[in-house]
Amino acid sequence: MYKLLSYLEKENVINFLMDLDIPAYIVSKDRVIVFWNKAAQKLTGYSPEDVIGKPCAKQVLNHVDRTGIPVCSTELCPLYQAIKNGIPVQVPFAVYGLTKSGKRRPLSIFGIPIKPNGEVIGAIELFSDAENMHSDMSLAIKIQQAFVPQDTDNVKFFYRPSVGLGGDMIYYNPPWVGIIDISGHGVAAALVSMLLRTIFDIVLSFDPPLHGVPFLIENELKKYQLEDIYFTAILGKLENDVFKFLDIAHPSPVNISKKEILNTINIPPIGFGFSEDYTEEVVNVFNLSDGKLLLYTDGITEEKTKNGMLTTEGLVNLVSPDDNLEMIYLKVLKERMSSLQEDDVTMILLQK
């Protein structure tokens, strides 16, 4: 800590930050607060005496994420990430701080490592009120969540985006069932998912043969001239307990009743212009009399465990025939090394 304070005094950082109109504070390498500026006091109500000398990991600032999970005492903390990796970390609008009045405020946070000569000795956090962004984001999340279907006797759904808004999409308009993983994350991917939903509605309303759907969707998508946008999917029709589907460069479905990975026929992702007017040979068929079929996005199989990525094989080893989707997610959660969910997690369970 002495090395940090000496450096800050020598470089006149304290005087600069004290007069800055942006709330800011500084922590040592072990995340003890050593400086708190006037703007930070104005926004939160905490005086320097309230916070200096206290580790932020002890919840003196009591930051939580959108779901109420503590941030300061976990790897979700942007200062922890900035100190650990030696690079700036931005969290635009997903942190909620407790002010001295007892009210929580949404905050936009930027963590910057302090590293003279390349050695990290502490970090600066700049933060600001994000009430307007919070309101807009909350409405956007509510809208997107409204499109997640309700469970039926035969089809169960699970949707957990990594940052509130997600690029995964569930399409359910019986008999059509689809799980779609769109390139990218966050707001942009969420907007693309809404566009794709409209395209799916248009194309599938004509009840085309299943093998012709990729070519038709590709042609519709081209009209919008979106660059570097593509998606993978499992898309099919569920009729009389038989699921006929296309595997569009997507992770292979799993028969959780028999703990088996399906060997499917794959076709290229949609969006690159590779889709053809396929024949019926690309259609996969699964009878639910053979077991429960789990569809999922790679956000779950690419979770980092102590042995590397979970993988589909690892998922098969975890699941049990009687597991519901929430139980599967919780099992994966126990294996995950980081407290941070880095990708959207979406699952569909088809059962007789």
Automatic annotation (TrEMBL):
Highest taxon of the lineage: Bacteria
Keywords: Hydrolase
InterPro entries, per the entry: Bact_Sigma-Reg (IPR052016), PAS (IPR000014), PAS-like_dom_sf (IPR035965), PPM-type-like_dom_sf (IPR036457), PPM-type_phosphatase-like_dom (IPR001932)
Database matches in SMART domains: PP2C_SIG (SM00331)
SUPFAM superfamilies found in the cross-reference section: PYP-like sensor domain (PAS domain)
Matches recorded under CDD domains: PAS
Entry-linked PANTHER family: STAGE II SPORULATION PROTEIN E, STAGE II SPORULATION PROTEIN E-RELATED
Name of this chain's protein: Putative PAS/PAC sensor protein
Source organism (scientific name): Fervidobacterium nodosum (strain ATCC 35602 / DSM 5306 / Rt17-B1)
